[in-house]
Design brief:
The protein is α/β, with parallel strands linked by helices and about 450 residues long. The protein has 18 helices and 16 strands. About 40% of the residues lie in helices and about 20% in strands. Strands 7-8-6-5-4-3-2-1-9 form a nine-stranded mixed beta sheet, sandwiched between helices. A four-stranded antiparallel beta sheet has the order 10-11-12-16, with no helix packed on it. The protein has a three-stranded antiparallel beta sheet with strand order 13-15-14. The chain is globular and about 60 Å long. The structure holds iron/sulfur cluster.
Length: about 450
């Protein structure tokens, strides 16, 4: 591969992992069933829904998410606009059933429970919200967040994702978190009481002053009290954040790359010993309590993104085809509110995904799962070129197969245990081969190979 090819491939990987794809938890895994295919219009009828609450009380030192400190309380306006945009985007799609809803942010546990209820009512007014749909809310484990958990359940939430991040108060403080480890433990306890088996915790490694040993001890402590789902996050230094500046100026140091790699492996082993099954790069579950919402992203299903900065992928209604669009909503809340009030939604950008781009997303997202991509699943999106045909002849891919990082067999394509930790370095070879093979394909009904930006958002 030359450097241009590698750069292109990494761009494709980043595009597929675009913001808005946050990690959440929920329900039981079912075997691969036909979900939707690029060429089957009726399978454009199901989607998941992501709702973004953009406000936080303060900025964590490492965070580059789309969040704002509110100047005034505009919860009522925000609620009405979230409802209106939900209704508009559902009307613009071919979706007739929402299978999961995720309220992320920002800090959605700052929203009033009536906001959550109102958005869910809007969904139900437009489409079928399945009675067993997973409805997850991200919670900051502050006393205020904890006090509202019961009301959130009454509003329709049946799963909580709690941002614990650390059990060391000194670390929480230096990261700018607005809770203590004691409050986090109390929130986990209350969430488990309300939604037993449906509580996920987020925990972060690679933090300043963290060692592999202290991380192992901390994780073991957390596993003693947590429920059946854990999401691991490696702290990444994002340009423009306070932490980035502190590290640049030398007043804070973070563990080196080889140390964070060791922390990841230490966590995988610890979780495995405690009965947790890894089902995705960062996600672990006991008793099959996986995140249905995230599984729908990793399986390439449609999703609708509502709220400032949210992303979506769905087939629009009435534009004569089955081409999926990537939609991005306006980032800044005040501007987004004005746009929703004027035209029913705040879509800033619509891009028609070409066949190659769709396959890139299926590949990049699918290989995050330990099960990888089955032949049946791949053929939903690529009916004429199976996995063996696309990847089997590539010298670079063969090297990955021989090294044992990648597996291509009668089950499909997936990473080995070692390979999953190296996914970022495996993807470029696969993406280059995918591009080469796809561009050689005869024209199919949905292959345009082009990205089209639609300048006049509908
Ligand atoms: S609470 Fe979450 S979204 Fe808000 S600043 Fe902290 S990390 Fe970012």
């Amino acid at each position: 591969m030359n450097s241009t090819q590698i750069k292109h491939s990494l761009r494709a990987a980043r595009r597929a992992l675009s913001p808005g794809l946050r990690c959440f938890s929920g329900g039981e895994v079912t075997e691969d069933v036909p979900e939707w295919s690029a060429g089957s219009p009726h399978l454009a009828e199901e989607a998941s829904l992501y709702v973004h609450w953009p406000y936080c009380l303060r900025r964590c030192s490492y965070c580059n998410f789309n969040k704002y400190i509110p100047k005034q309380n505009n919860d009522d306006i925000m609620t009405k606009c979230l409802q209106r945009e939900t209704e508009t985007l559902l009307q613009l799609s071919q979706v007739s059933c929402i299978t999961s809803v995720f309220f992320g942010g920002g800090t959605p546990s700052l929203a009033h429970p009536s906001t959550i209820a109102a958005v869910l009512e809007s969904v139900s007014r437009q489409v079928n919200l399945s009675h067993d749909a997973e409805v997850t809310l991200e919670v900051n484990p502050t006393p205020v967040g904890m006090s509202k958990l019961e009301d959130y359940c009454r509003a329709g939430v049946n799963r909580f994702s709690i941002g614990v991040q650390s059990l060391q108060d000194e670390h929480l403080k230096s990261l700018g978190r607005d809770h203590t480890s004691h409050e986090a433990l109390q929130t986990i306890g209350e969430a488990r009481r309300l939604c037993p088996g449906r509580v996920s915790v987020d925990v972060m490694f690679g933090r300043p002053k963290q060692t592999v040993e202290s991380w192992g001890t901390e994780l073991s402590e957390l596993l003693r009290v947590c429920d059946d789902h854990v999401s691991l996050y490696q702290l990444t230094l994002e340009r423009g954040t306070q932490l980035f500046k502190q590290v640049q100026s030398g007043c804070v140091t973070v563990p080196a790359e080889d140390v964070t790699a060791e922390m990841y492996q230490c966590a995988r082993k610890t979780l495995h010993q405690r009965g947790f099954h890894q089902y995705e790069v960062s996600n672990f579950t006991r008793r099959n309590s996986v995140s249905h919402h995230n599984m729908s992203y990793w399986r390439g299903k449609q999703y609708i993104g509502v709220g400032p900065g949210a992303h979506g992928r769905f087939v629009p209604l009435g534009e004569g085809g089955v081409v999926r669009e990537a939609r991005t909503q306006t980032l800044e809340p005040d501007v987004w509110i004005r746009e929703v009030q004027q035209r029913g939604h705040g879509t800033r950008r619509r891009i028609q995904l070409g066949h190659l781009e769709l396959l890139e997303e299926v590949l990049v997202m699918g290989l995050r799962m330990t099960k990888g991509i089955s032949h049946k699943h791949w053929e939903l999106f690529s009916p004429t070129q199976g996995l063996h045909k696309v990847f089997g002849a590539s010298v670079d891919v063969q090297e990955l197969l021989q090294s044992g990082q990648l597996i291509l067999d009668d089950r499909g394509l997936r990473c080995s245990w070692d390979g999953l930790a190296l996914l970022d370095s495996i993807l470029p070879a696969l993406l280059v081969e995918l591009e080469r093979q796809t561009l050689q394909m005869p024209h199919t009904q949905f292959a345009d190979g082009q990205t089209k930006t639609i300048s006049n958002p509908r």
